[in-house]
Amino acid sequence: MSEYIIKGGKKIEGEVDISGSKNASLPIIAACVLNGGKSTLYNVPKIHDTEMMFEILKRLGGSVEKKKNKVIIDTSKIEKYEIPEELMRQMRSSVILVGGFLGRYRKAVFSYPGGCDIGARPIELHLKVFEKLGININKNYGNIECFCDKIMGEKIDLDCPSVGATENAILASCLAEGTTIINNAAREPEIVDLQNFLNKMGAKIKGAGTSHIEIEGVKQLKDVSYNIIPDRIETGTFLCLAAINRTNLIVKNSKAEHITPVIDKLEEMGCKLKIEKNQIEINSPKKLKTVDIKTMPYPGFPTDMQSVFATMLTTVKGTSVIVENIFESRYKYTQELVRMGAKITTEGKTAIIKGVRKLYGTTVKATDLRGGAALVVAGTAAKGITKVENIEYILRGYEDFSKKLEKIGVDIELKGN
Ligand code: UD1
After folding, report:
1. C-alpha distance from residue 206 to each of 18, 180, 197, 344 (Å)
2. What is the share, in percent, of the chain residues with pLDDT greater than 70?
């Protein structure tokens, strides 16, 4: 068990470099199965979740070679398509591999995926997509077997714009016969990155970033090298860190256009943001104004920013209201914040925050990846020492978190790992 120990209230300033996007890397790593060859990826964050994807590929016969700033994935020797249960359980995104395996082998065997406990995370939309593409599905004591002779392009109308189901539909149909159309597709920047990566590999996909995506099946895909987009949630986390500490920060390697609603809300609160092509400078005044937020699918306010943003609002005078529309159990971290002196009440989808003058350090537990990051952000601004336990959740998604925080002045120690 590892923990962070943070002495709050230090002067924070300087520059922070944002890593490659976790949520773009995971489907792109899954897509590497499709060319049955070599893919060179730049900017993959070194985090637990990408390591788990590599581990699965290696167990099935692939090779993963890490060099300084790149990873070379060779899937030419993969001959198995059964994703090991113990690895599948460790992360939700392992389900994305299924689309990759179906695309290449027309077969995949897997179990229900694990991941952060932020609410029911069913996969029935993914299975519906596969069925629509003519893939047979057998469910046996928690094991799911998908198989077919060939995948024929189809029209898929998603019930809701699920990110994972959209990605699986793209992956499974790149090498299909004919054209696949996805309506009500998710529009996240990570889907656009997946499209750009696959098109560089030789796929014919258009429309990512809109709710209508078309994939014209091709016969084969080639070797590729690709640079992954910056992590927009890590960017947002550091912007909120600056705001809760009422300081200035330059967030480098970040794309403001990927987090427009977060930028808009920070500006509404009174922060000044200077946006350049690849960096954002934030300047937070001492007095901030309250705001209300509602999480929505992209381009709405991202659910993954909800906990960190709400944490920043705990020290803003007045009342802020948060509505979480995507995941039903995404307020567990608020109980930990209350232990630090925050005034938050939750009822169903809604959280009501009454700003307090200060948060106070104490021992808290990370309850999920983003909720855990929120507690670290709280600790940097709290009076006294905050011990954040269970940080394994945070290490799943933030590369070198404590090192980056130290570099901008946070007094933080990582114990146990
Ligand atoms: C992705 C992100 C995650 C983010 C989420 C929403 C990755 C690796 N993870 O997760 O960080 O929080 O998008 O922006 O990219 N749903 C169903 N049935 C399904 C699938 C989803 O009901 O079969 C529901 C979910 O319970 C949830 C909503 O759809 O309420 C959105 O989920 P989805 O977009 O699929 O999220 P993920 O792809 O799992």
Report:
1. 28, 11, 12, 44
2. 98
Active site residues: 116
Centre of ligand 1 from the C-alpha of residue 302, in Å = 11
**Domain identity same for 190 and 239:** no
Instruction: Compute CA distances 383 → 357, 376, 386, whole Å.
Output: 11, 13, 9
- Are 346 and 314 within one domain? yes
Query: Which residue among 162, 233, 296, 308 has the greatest number of ligand 1 atoms within 8 angstroms of its CB, and so is best to mutate?
Result: 162
- Which residue, 227, 258, 276, sits at the end of a domain? 227
Using pLDDT thresholds of 50, 70 and 90, give the confidence band for residue 140.
Answer: confident
Tokens of 146: 């998908």
Q: Residue 122: CB within 6 Å of ligand 1? A: yes
Please indicate, yes or no, whether residues 221 and 133 belong to a single structural domain of this protein: yes
Q: Which atom of ligand 1 is nearest to the CA of 164?
A: 38
pLDDT, one tens digit per residue, over 306-350 is: 999 999 999 999 999 999 999 987 999 999 999 999 999 999 999
Spatial CA neighbour of 171 closest among 115, 122, 130, 226: 130
CATH of the domain at 307: 3.65.10.10
* Shared-domain flag, residues 9 and 42: no
Nearest to 90 by CA among 398, 393, 329, 399: 393
With residues binned 3-state (H G I as helix, E B as strand, rest as coil), the percentages for the chain, rounded to 5, are 35, 25, 40
Whole-number Å distance, alpha carbon 162 to ligand 1 midpoint, is: 5
pTM: 0.96
Q: How many domains does the chain have?
A: 2
Residues 191 and 211 in one domain: yes
* Full domain range(s) for residue 399: 3-19+231-415
Pocket test for ligand 1, best of 326, 349, 370, 396 (most atoms within 8 A of CB): 326
Q: Quick one: CA dihedral 113, 150, 128, 35, positive or negative?
A: positive
Q: Which of 144, 163, 234, 303 to mutate to test the pocket of ligand 1 (most atoms within 8 A of CB)?
A: 163
Same domain flag for 263 and 394: yes
How many Å lie between the centroid of ligand 1 and the Cα of residue 284? Answer: 32
**Cα 163 to middle of ligand 1, angstroms:** 6
**pLDDT higher than 70, residue 16:** yes
CA 127 to ligand 1: nearest atom: 23
Atom of ligand 1 nearest to the CA of 328: 30
Domain's final residue, options 193, 227, 261: 227
Confidence of residue 1 (pLDDT cuts 50, 70, 90): confident
